[in-house]
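ugh ok fine here u go
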Amino acid sequence: MPGKTSTVNLRRTIRQGHGTSALLLTCLLLTGCAHNTYTVRRLPPEYAAEPTSDFSTLDLTAWARPIPSGDQIQSGDRLKLSVNSGIGGPEAVEEWTVGVDHDGAATIPHVGRIRLAGLTLAEAEQSITEESIRRDVYLTPAVDVQVEERNRNEILVTGAVENPGTLEFPEDRLSLADILVRTGGLTPEATGRITVNTAQPGHDTGDRLHTVSRTRTQGTTGEALTVDLATTPAAELAAIEVPGGAAVNVEAAGERTVQVIGVIGDRPVTVPAGRNLRLLEALALAGGPTYSHWISNRIDVIRRIPEKNETIRIKTSIRKAKKDDRENLLLAPGDIVSVEENLLSFTLSALGGLTGLTSAARYATLP
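structure:
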């Protein structure tokens, strides 16, 4: 009888005009889906739906560096420096333009290299003064430091972040944790996969990227790194340094739907972003079963397994799903949930159709 019931249900669906779903269901039956049938409890792990994580709840603020204040000197800045040696009157002033290198130091004429990155302008003036005296270059110098040109770097951030676009920053590079925090965090659509493409082949961050990468390819345009947030600790995200000119893509999940058919109508159900969808919730979102589960109970979930080029059928029931959480199957995007018809539900549908026709005929004969 199960085979006859499925055939009757299929023919009825086709007659009702549910063309797309009926055609798909026909193809599944003809390609031998029935030979790959499982119960929920006997479902092999490789055929189970993969749970979805909501990465929008990931808080990396403790692992991100604070945004530098506008008064702080950064690597790549150019400074206008004037020094009055204190000997020979106010006219004894020397002026230079110096750059802050990638190590954060500037080479001051007569004085030498002094680390200035991270200091305010006032702190830089004090440091140069103290080093000039300590190195016996000047006795009582008066130092003035001004920013002539600010260093500006850019990273293009796309995908599932709150504020995608070009991220400007004064530092020489940012960590991946810095980037995610400064773009407002992840959205629920984030799959957890992040791709980093650097614009500089062989950049010295490559080795560090390699130590934490899950997938890494070398191309003509630079380093390519893929990070999986599900397996990468926050400390590693803070250790991945991304240079200016790079592009970072936070992968966003496309629209995920489940098709519900059978004794419930024929409608797609959208899987909410960042959430898992289980059987009973899908039925509720589809409007609920037409009949009580004491009348219509059996459910078939038809699932395509692209990796194995297989289609399987998972058998369960509404009553089982209500009694046992394990039977409340986790659905995968693309699943077809078929609320199966039986003799009683078919009879009730037929009687309902006849009643509708009788009522329509009665109203049509009214004057």
